[in-house]
Amino acid sequence: MMGEMNADYLMFDHMEDRGQTAQTSHDALETVAPGAHGFLTATRNDRLVSLSRLHVQSPSFAGLNSFPDTFEAVN
């Protein structure tokens, strides 16, 4: 299936507070889709973009991460 998918750009995110970097995200692509660097247009043209989740995650989405803990504490 991965061979049928293609993109001019690939977007990733990484979590700096967990020690991740843009390179971590790019390296993970090989785990998810072995050999992808050889056949995806974005990788052949070095068009992999990784953004820090700290800067792109909305406050409401970030709040969802703490919701289960808060809900459990109330019950």
Highlighted features:
75 residues, alpha+beta, two-stranded parallel sheet, 5 helices, 52% helix
What would you note in describing this structure?
The chain is an alpha+beta fold. It has one domain (2-74). The chain contains five helices and two strands. Strands 1-2 form a two-stranded parallel sheet. The protein is elongated, with a radius of gyration of 16 Å. 1% of the residues are buried. The mean pLDDT is 76.
What's the structural blueprint in terms of helices and strands?
Blueprint: E1 10-14, H1 22-32, H2 36-39, H3 41-44, E2 48-52, H4 53-56, H5 59-74
Run of helices and strands: EHHHEHH
Cα gyration radius (Å): 16 Å
Q: Counting H and I runs of at least 4 residues, what is the number of helices?
A: 5
Based on helices, strands and strand pairing, what is the structural class? alpha+beta
Distance from N terminus to C terminus (CA atoms, Å) equals: 44 Å
What is the total domain count?
1
Helix coverage percent of residues? 40-55%
Low-confidence stretches: none
Strand order, biggest sheet? 1-2
Task: Report the biggest beta sheet as strand number plus sense, adding barrel if it closes.
Answer: 2 strands, parallel
Number of strands: 2
Mean pLDDT: 76
How would you sum up the global shape? elongated
Oligomer: single chain
